[in-house]
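Worked example 3 (structure in, sequence out).
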């Protein structure tokens, strides 16, 4: 299974410069982020991907779409792999709005408001990652899955901090990390 962190978003760009929440709800990719998505799609074209699972945040969908187009696969949108809710950027877009923005993506199974109402404790994100690990491990073809997600979810899943556009190969049949160190990215 391959985990891909979304490309650089407007939030990432400004937060990196100021280390303060710039207050952007559900930010989109920057030009660099779109380039990172294209580079990832090119690399993934050489992989035997048969399923693409993606977070409902716009930055994740924008990152997943070039790979989906190149591979001829639909996106499976699920909030299970979303970012830890901790900043304004983690306020999502309603499902109907996402459907209008991305008409080629099926949001029929997504609740209208799919993000939490308040900050999510780290242990809750780690629980979501463990649940997703178990769901993926139960599949015979997990090795052919691409998951487009976020810094916090990938950290909870692997114990590793990854950069925008970075990919990790993971085996969901292996145990979760013993310790996850949460430091702001």
């Amino acid at each position: 299974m391959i985990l891909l962190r979304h490309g650089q978003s407007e939030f990432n760009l400004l937060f990196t410069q100021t280390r303060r929440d710039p207050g952007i709800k559900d930010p989109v990719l920057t030009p660099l982020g779109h380039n990172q998505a294209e580079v990832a799609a090119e690399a993934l074209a050489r992989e035997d991907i048969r399923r693409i699972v993606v977070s409902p945040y716009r930055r994740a969908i924008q990152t997943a779409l070039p790979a989906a187009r190149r591979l001829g696969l639909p996106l499976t949108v699920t909030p299970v792999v979303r970012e830890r809710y901790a900043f304004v950027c983690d306020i999502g877009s309603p499902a109907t709005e996402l459907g209008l923005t991305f008409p080629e993506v099926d949001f029929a199974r997504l609740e209208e408001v799919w993000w939490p109402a308040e900050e999510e404790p780290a242990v809750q994100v780690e629980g979501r990652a463990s649940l997703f690990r178990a769901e993926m491990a139960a599949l015979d073809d997990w090795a052919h899955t691409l998951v487009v997600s976020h810094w916090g979810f990938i950290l909870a899943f692997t114990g590793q901090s990854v950069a925008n556009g970075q990919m990790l190969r993971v085996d969901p049949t292996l145990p979760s990390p013993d310790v996850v160190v949460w430091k702001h990215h």
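Notes: Residues 122-137 form the longest helix (16 residues). The radius of gyration is 15 Å.
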